[in-house]
Fold this sequence. Notes:
Helix content: under 10%
Number of strands: 50
Structural class: mainly beta
Mean pLDDT: 86
Low-confidence stretches: 1-28, 127-132, 774-790
Shape: elongated
Amino acid sequence: MNFYWxxxxxxSIVLAIAALLIxxxxxxxxxxxxxxxxxxxxxxxxxxxxxxxxxxxSDTAIIAGTMSNMEGRFILSQVPEGxxxxxxxxxxxxxxxxxxxxxxxxxxxxxxxxxxxETVQLEETLVVGERIKAKTTTDKTTFFVNKKMNDVxxxxxxxxxxxxxVHLDLIHNLSLEGHxxxxxxxxxxxxxxxxxxxxxxxxIDKVExxxxxxxxxxxxxxxxxxxxxxxxxxxxNGHIYAExxxxxxxxxxxxxxxxxxxxxxxxxxxxxxGEITYFDITEENRRKLxxxxxxxEFQSILNVRQKNWSHNFHYGMDFFLNERNxxxxxxxxxxxxxxxxxxxxxxxxxxxxxxxxxLADKEDTDKNYKTFYSLYYKHIFSNPDRELTFDxxxxxxxxxxxxxxxxxxxxxxxxxxxxxxxxxxxNSASLRVDFTSPLAKKVKLDAGLKGKRRVMKDENTSxxxxxxxxxxxxxxxxxxxxRMSLNAGLRAEGSTTEWEKHACNNLNSLLPHVxxxxxxxxxxxxxxxxxxxxxxxxxxxxxxxxxxxxxxLVQKGNPELQSQIAHQFTIDYTVMPGNNYISTRFFYHRISxxxxxxxxxxxxxxxxxxxxxxxxxxxxxxxxTGAIKLSKAITFSPFFKLLRSQSQINDRTRQYGITNSEDWxxxxxxxxxxxxxKNLAASFLFQYNSPRTDIQNTRNCDPxxxxxxxxxxxxxxNIGIRTGIPFxxxxxxxxxxxxxxxxxxxxxxxxxxxxxxxxLHVRFQFNTGKKVKRIDRERGKTDNTPKKGF
Length: 790
């Protein structure tokens, strides 16, 4: 204890000297004096050697600093005229904030400033691991990014891959604990995965995961990822990230750059992220149709070159008017394309005899443009726990997608030239208002409103125009005590939809949410959640346009598709054996109006597939998430989910020969890091899901895994090498089996790769400015969270 006391006195003396230098008089300026006393709130005794610092309101920069004497008194002299906030802290006590208004030529006396002894917050679970430090609170789990994670990560997406329960497939589709509809936030502002791709991994401070989103979030959101960045910097800073393939057969690149310029009030930024994937793909399709007197069979082999590319250009500005008012303007422009060009060979058999044969060229023309704009405003009241935010956004999609089959040879006129074309357009605008405020010492109120207008149409189909208006209001109350916390809320959502300028659907929903957290002891906690959700169909599911896939299969949308409703109940148990983090979840979901793809033989004698409301689903099971230290240099983060699904089909689905089904399946994944000496690190990523049946279709794919080796030079330069799924030569990225009483369909797709595919990458970051010490305005205290693991 004496060691800490002496160290604290030395630091205080240094701070006092610095304060003296800061307070040297400047000619031509009128200075004021601030004085007061620091006392112990419970014992009402003076506190000597307490640290006192004066901060600028607009950017939290330190103006002056000193420490209290043996009587607890402090004096700040030579203070320029203006409004500031005073911060007082001492080891073992909670920091105290106070507003100060220095009038020209007058001194300011704060009087007694009582400090409250710091106590352990039992409503939180603190877990310290070799790779991460995880903290579980009432509504979220926070994973702190440390040096070990940074050593194996280059972009924000790389960081997410090492968060337990977060999975990204080969084309970067993100899921959280098996669910795809994930809301991504960056510093609390709504963004998307493309924005995360351009973030320098070293700028991420922590990642917050909300497994069971409350009433504040849209009803269809299955989880929330909130990425918190480190403190902002002045001057220029940024990074460049580039990748290079070693073979032309598999091009799998995600280049990025970022450039920021900031000062005390402004921060201007521009950035770019790209995604370029060129693979050789083989797709096989086999369909059998059974009639009373004959069997027809169709088989096709498609050899194509996948040419997918996307370029995202981001731009925006942050403006800090003062410590209570913050503005953010953000936008992006995203052209992208997904084309599969090549040739297709087809055969038709009748009673095992080949009757027709054809060879055709397949050519895609795919042009897509997305734009997005957002204006965000945040106001913090005099009570730093009370705040109001506005978020206004606009989204636009414009696309022109064409698939053209040109036959080289054909033995039957049924193999005719086919052109499928859609020109979707989508515009949406939304406004969200959120307010939070404490009602009592342990009670907090959250409330808000949201409205959204969406217009969807296909310019290639004159009779398809779909309008949707959604509006929502929510209110939630939170109560926190030393052992138990409670959050309960209600979200009211209404929607009106129009198709072909006629109202076709009106839906009003009350969506409750309840969360109870109980702290068993310092290392164990249990949490129970219930929420009701709603999922609305998108433009591609609603568009009735018919696409000819092959002579035996057509595909179209369903404009009469209804929203899907779900009830979700979960129990989470968290335990920390040693320095490890393990969370177990038991869950039960009941889904009504389940949206699945229905396939049947239509009146023309060919297969037709469309999305439909096929009945009810019951899902229950258990999942395990963890962050485990295997040794001083090795960390391991597993995820495993065991799922039981039971379907109860409706009468419309039953008429197509589909029956109720029951199915066991599992989802698994893990990440591991190994840190060597001399800034050398390796990582391993793995994920695999067993075959899974969703009423009529059974889907699965091969295991996916990546290995990488990284070397860091002088903290600014990182060079690495990566390989994915080596020695396989082929990766099955999807298999789908569909059955009806009068047909059977089987499709699969394989990516043809080198025996040992390798990609090289390099990252360089630069910084010409200084970091601005961040004050956590939401809590009125400096962010002292450790930034590194042990």
